[in-house]
Write a structure and sequence with these properties.
The complex is a heterodimer of chains A (468) and B (311).
Chain A (H helix, E strand, L loop, with lengths): L4 E4 L2 E4 H13 L11 E3 L5 E7 L4 H17 L3 E7 L5 H10 L6 E4 L3 H6 L23 H4 L3 E2 L2 E2 L2 E13 H6 L13 H11 L1 E3 L2 E7 L5 H4 L3 H7 L5 E2 L4 E2 L4 H18 L3 H6 L15 H4 L2 E7 L2 H4 L11 E4 L14 E7 L7 H20 L5 E2 L10 H7 L1 H15 L11 H16 L5 H23 L1
Parallel strand pairs in A: 4-5, 4-6, 11-14
Antiparallel strand pairs in A: 1-2, 3-4, 6-16, 7-8, 9-14, 9-15, 9-16, 9-17, 10-11, 12-13
Chain B lengths: L6 H44 L2 E2 L7 E2 L3 H8 L4 H30 L6 H9 L6 H11 L6 H8 L11 H12 L4 H13 L2 H9 L4 H29 L3 H7 L12 H11 L3 H29 L8
Helix pairs in contact in B: 1-13, 3-7, 3-8, 3-10, 5-11, 8-10, 9-10, 10-13, 12-13
The chains are: A alpha+beta (468), B mainly alpha (311).
């Protein structure tokens, strides 16, 4: 049983575990905790602004502190009081602070700002964006900025984004005489599936090696399902018209395809597949090691942050990994990609939004470039040249690092709109449940998606009616 | 020579004293009373009020009447499964916890050398943060390498897939609930210490076996303590949250089998920003637990024995 994860520095944060720990410490201990006054003049006359992150590893937080100090050095009128969250109860704390009229001046978000914006928890940034060096609209990839936009307003800045691609083990490919260059990588789902099957190996009822398992865990598959849907010519959420299209023909066909893949290559037994290993890049909750790094999984769908996380656990069982674009589904016409951003936002009710925005502008450019050297979540702003993460240079050399970075930067140009629903979390849960039902064969794709569609559309309409 | 005061003077003096005592008493309990009103009564009333609103924490609540309750009972596909999961968990875990805590307390009541150390050891799990305990248990429940399954295999039993099989995930949660028994054991121990030794001695002289002494003397005299632990256990079990959300996430994996009622409330409040709806669910939980507690107290007259016959 694994889950969707993001990593900062050497520490892996599972979305679900984040929720769990948030629950444990945040909810069980209630939402007490009074935030310090967010912005106030300091003794030296500088305006102090509080800047939050939901959590992060020591190196992530230390680098944020360094960025704050750098900013103060060039902007003596503003002092940034950086507060690194513990990952516990962030959303409760954040909402509580906004509701109490005592929010931080600015914050990093790991959940879409659209949901929070619709609920009135954030300040729209459109009036401030043209004033920044990095923040004008034209400096952001449109597909990525869409994750912040709703109702004609922009609720956050997608300063960094892990861009998705298909990672593969060149050494396993070579052992089978398969070309390892990116251009030779499968271009269609059928080719991908055929290639995957070449690597898959069973010993009795145990899967000892797998080609690719895109559906390895419903909770981690749900966030990237919009990409697969787009690859098959579909869409899960129509942001322009504010409606869900989960049970559209292309999506049902997509799940039918994956179900056939499960049946054909993995004996149709989802539980057995999961029992056999953690078929991606992170350990399972039960401590199974990540099979991609162990060299037992040939290909895996993952974000660019794995450039760092590849080395975050036991020493990997192989050296040469590479990344390729997503193959196209039977109903699709061209490859697509997706992303998972770190958003920057200004809560509603802050006292010094201009000063806060000044810092966000700095973070969008200089700050995020500095953070990128240790935490490989890609800067998205067009004016930022991110370089290559230190760890990739150390392990694979500058030339390879530059090639991979160019690939991920290119992926930013073909990302589809994601994270743009006002009921993102609700929908993600519904999709997770639908996927779990489909792969455990408790429900047919049409039936499961129709149930999720009904629930999501009803919730969306309720929220939109409340926001109107 | 003392002069007798008229009766009405005595009454007046007594009344004044009682008033002074009452005032002093009130002053002494005032801090607790204020805390009760501010931190318990007000939130409960506030939750009750919010349960009739659409409220997202940030914007002002909007009155929706009984809509939240209609949705809960009629349209929310997760409501009844969560009720069933929580009820199952409570129905199994509470008696199990009681039996195990009592058994442990009986063992820890023995006057053997180093018993103090044993008592400390058995209390320690109550101090472990639930998040840490849950993560450790998840590793222990590992299908192949977890010590629980290794032990089962060693005695020839087929190891279940605790955390992936919906038939076994709730039992896994229940087993996890048996880990921190320290508080219940402590209460039982205190109760055991209150049992008069002469009663046990008299029974022994009359030829009662240890088991007979337990059934005939210890257990009846311990029933007030059982009642206490039962009530607390029922309340606690319906509020199971941390292990459930860590093991099953917000969707109650696998297949909704670990979706407990508190997880439902949590995700509505803090994940979906539906604070009004979550408040309605919290009120339903409050009423259900209160009704169960009342039922237990009503039943107490039939099975709880108080020394001196005071019910």
């Amino acid at each position: 049983m694994s889950s969707t994860r993001r990593s900062v520095g050497g520490t892996t944060w599972s979305r679900r575990r984040l929720m769990g720990t948030a629950a444990a410490a945040g909810f069980a201990a209630a939402t007490g905790g009074r935030a310090a006054r967010a912005a106030r003049p300091t003794a030296q006359g500088a305006t102090e602004i509080t800047f939050w992150t939901p959590g992060g590893s020591p190196i992530f937080c230390d680098t944020h502190s360094a960025v704050a100090a750098d900013y103060a050095a060039v902007n003596p009128d503003v002092r940034v009081n950086f507060q690194c969250g513990t990952g516990e109860g962030f959303m409760e704390r954040f909402l509580g602070a906004v509701a109490a009229g005592n929010p931080p001046e600015a914050t990093v978000l790991w959940d879409t700002p659209v949901s929070l914006g619709v609920q009135g928890a954030l300040r729209p940034l459109d009036d401030l964006m043209p004033t920044g060096e990095y923040t004008p609209v034209e400096n952001w990839p449109a597909g990525v900025l869409a994750s912040c936009q709703f109702g004609g307003q922009t609720w956050g800045l997608p300063a960094a984004a892990g861009t998705y691609g298909i990672w593969y083990n060149e050494e396993l490919f070579e052992a089978k005489g398969i070309p390892t260059d990116r251009a030779s990588f499968p271009k269609t789902w059928d080719e991908l599936r055929a290639l995957s099957k070449e690597f898959t190996l069973w010993e009795g009822d145990r899967l000892v090696q797998a080609g690719m398992v895109p559906f390895n865990d419903p909770a981690s598959f749900a966030p990237t399902l919009p990409i697969w849907s787009a690859l098959n010519g579909g869409q899960l959420f129509d942001g322009e018209n504010q409606r869900y299209t989960l049970d559209a023909e292309a999506n049902v066909a997509m799940l039918d395809y994956f179900l056939a893949w499960l049946d054909d290559e993995y004996r149709g037994d989802f539980a057995q597949l999961q029992r056999s290993g953690a078929w991606w890049t992170y350990p399972s909750d039960e401590g199974q090691p990540p099979e991609f790094q162990a060299g037992r999984l040939a290909m895996v769908e993952q974000g660019s942050w794995v450039m760092g996380d590849f080395y975050a656990y036991d020493e990997p069982g192989f050296t040469r990994w590479n990344v390729a674009s997503y193959p196209v589904g039977p109903g699709g016409t061209s490859t697509k990609s997706g992303y998972w951003p770190n958003w920057l936002a200004i809560p509603a009710g802050t006292e010094h939004p201009e000063e806060a925005f000044g810092y966000l502008d700095y973070m969008s450019g200089v700050g995020i470039a500095k953070i990128f050297t240790v935490v490989p979540d890609m800067p998205t702003n067009a004016k930022v040249e991110p370089g290559v993460p230190n760890i990739v240079v150390e392990r694979r050399g500058q030339e390879f690092g530059e090639d991979v970075m160019a690939f991920f930067r290119g992926q930013l140009d073909i990302v589809i709109p994601m994270w743009d629903s006002p009921v993102q979390s609700f929908a993600q849960d519904q999709i997770t449940v639908a996927l779990e039902q489909v792969f455990t064969k408790q429900a047919a794709p049409q039936e499961a998606l129709a149930a999720a569609q009904r629930a999501c559309q009803a919730e969306l309409e309720k929220v939109l009616a409340g926001a109107a | 020579m003392a002069m007798a005061l008229p009766a009405r003077w005595n009454r007046a003096a007594g009344g004044s004293l009682r008033r002074r005592e009452a005032r002093a008493g009130l002053l002494f309990i005032l801090p607790w009373l204020v805390a009760l009103l501010v931190f318990s009564v007000y939130p409960v009333l506030g939750t009750f009020g919010l349960s009739f609103t659409d409220y997202n924490v940030i914007e002002a609540p909007r009155w929706v009447g009984l809509d939240n309750f209609r949705r809960m009972f009629g349209a929310d596909p997760d409501f009844w499964p969560a009720v069933q999961n929580s009820a199952f968990y409570a129905a199994v875990s509470v008696p199990l916890r009681l039996v195990m805590a009592l058994a442990l307390a009986l063992v820890l009541n023995l006057g053997v050398r180093g018993i103090g150390l044993y008592r400390v050891i058995f209390y320690l799990p109550a101090l472990v943060p639930p998040v840490a305990a849950t993560i450790v248990f998840m590793l222990m429940f590992n299908l192949d390498t977890g010590p629980i399954n290794l032990a089962l295999q060693a005695v020839g039993l087929a190891p279940p897939d605790w955390l992936r099989d919906p038939a076994w995930s709730k039992p896994a949660l229940i087993i996890l609930s048996l880990w921190p028994l320290g508080v219940e054991v402590l209460v039982f121990l205190a109760g055991l210490k209150e049992i008069p030794q002469d009663l046990l001695d008299a029974a022994a002289i009359d030829g009662a076996t240890p088991w007979r002494r337990f059934l005939g003397v210890t257990l009846p005299l311990l029933t007030p303590v059982v009642l206490f632990n039962l009530v607390i256990g029922v309340i606690y079990s319906f509020q199971v949250f941390v292990p459930a959300i860590i093991i099953g996430g917000t969707t109650g994996e696998p297949l909704g089998s670990t979706l407990m009622f508190m997880v439902l409330i949590y995700r509505n409040a803090f994940r979906y920003f539906a604070m009004g709806y979550a408040a309605a669910q919290a009120m339903v939980l409050f009423v259900a637990v209160a009704a169960l507690t009342l039922l237990i107290f009503r039943s107490a007259r039939f099975w709880v024995h108080y020394e001196g016959g005071d019910q």
